[in-house]
Amino acid sequence: MASLSKRIFVVILGVALACELLCLGFAWWALVDASERESSRALAAEADLLRQAIETGGSTSSALVGISAEDVRVTWIAVDGSILYDSDGATENHRERPEVIAALNSGEGSAARYSQTLGEVSHYYALRLADGSILRVATTNSQILSALEALALPGVLLAVAVVLGASLLARWLAGRLVSPLLELNLDAPRENRLYRELEPLLERMEQQRLAIAAQVEEAGRTRRELTANVSHELKTPLTVISGYAELMKAGNVDPADVPYFSELIYTEAGHMHDLVEDLLVLAQLDEYAVEEAGSAPAGGERTQMVDLRTVASDAIDRLTPFANQLNVSFHLETSGDTNLYGSPRALTSLVYNLCENAIRYNVESGSVTVALQGVEENVALSVRD
Fold first, then answer.
1. How far apart are CA 289 and CA 285, in angstroms?
2. What is the greatest pairwise CA distance in the chain?
3. Are 111 and 39 in contact (CB under 8 A)?
4. CA distances from 216 to 53, 139, 281, 283, 288 (A)
5. Does pTM top 0.70 for this prediction?
């Protein structure tokens, strides 16, 4: 997971680089525009000088041939667009050139044409002479590449500065943003005065804190009640067992009453056994209550596919000796698919306790019937005595 400072750095860097590109683009456009304006002024001045030389020389063609302008192309164009003279030796008709059309209509015209192959821009300035012909001068320069070269080094240096500045600013902002979070009072979330955007989160934290406190209080109350109830329930059988055992130990019991006293001790011990079993069941229920989506608590087991027929058979086998003492018979009836998804330990305890109670509270020479019936994806279990 990316850190907060890294995320802020990416945002700041992106915005800063976008602004830098916009500034460099504007600077490049300004340089190119200034260069074009300068070229236009220079060509206009050059054309005016040529016009003056032609007018004083008397012969236009001889005057043009005698003029040598470095890096300037000179073209004399007739009214019909044919070439009367061109310093570069061009011969094609120029009647449709925009600068020529403008000069014929208004006396002067200018145009610029870009060469993608050479990366150069050619500037043209045309001037109409007294006889109606057109004098055109042109110059070519690589101003686009020159402008890019002029901006390359400043652009690189600015990009490096932006990266370093964004990194430092991101670390500083991340520290300022996180610092109040580290000072949160989690015991009283509503008392924190932080960012407005975090108020819903703090409200939920407060609600969860109150809910947990209520649950802890309820659990404590329930445990105290359970402890008091168990203590009260255990007191009676313990008193009976210890009292009769003390009489038997002291020899103050008629031998004829020993079976009766033994039966009382055995019965009260059974009551204690039931209380202990109830406590174990409650502990298991608390443990299984935290299971969600097939996960189990620490030390627990995951739910899995269990055959309830096998669980019932094992419970009957374990309880058969106890059933024989009371002359109680077992019957197992099954139909359909008895497999279900659950906890093997919880299901075993469930079936065992039901069968044990069915034996304990049965009639003499009675029977216990365990019935399993698969119903779609469920299994119906019944224990009848």
1. 6
2. 165
3. no
4. 107, 90, 21, 16, 18
5. no
- Tens-digit pLDDT profile for residues 89-112: 788 888 888 988 998 899 888 888
Q: How far apart are CA 125 and CA 139, in angstroms?
A: 9
Q: Which residues pair with 136 in a beta bridge?
A: 75, 126
Sheet holding 134-141, edge to edge: 83-86, 73-77, 134-141, 120-128, 108-115
Taking the C-alpha atoms of residue 151 and residue 59, their distance in angstroms, rounded to an integer, is: 47
pLDDT of amino acid 298: 43
Q: Which two tokens stand for residue 69?
A: 């302008």
What is the enclosing helix (H) or strand (E) of 276? Answer: helix 258-289
CA 150, 154, 157, 160 torsion-angle sign: negative
- Closest by CA position to 268, among listed 232, 294, 239: 239
Terminal Cα distance for the chain, rounded:
62
Q: pLDDT by residue (tens digit) across 133-167?
A: 888 888 876 555 555 666 677 777 877 888 888 78
138 in Cβ contact with 125 (< 8 Å): yes
**How crowded is residue 3: how many other Cβ atoms within 10 Å of its Cβ?**
12
- The Cα 241–Cα 245 span in angstroms is 6
Cα distance between residue 110 and residue 125, in whole Å? 4
Helix/strand/coil for 193 = coil
Using a 10 angstrom Cβ sphere, with 0-12 exposed, 13-18 middle and 19 or more buried, the burial of residue 29 is exposed
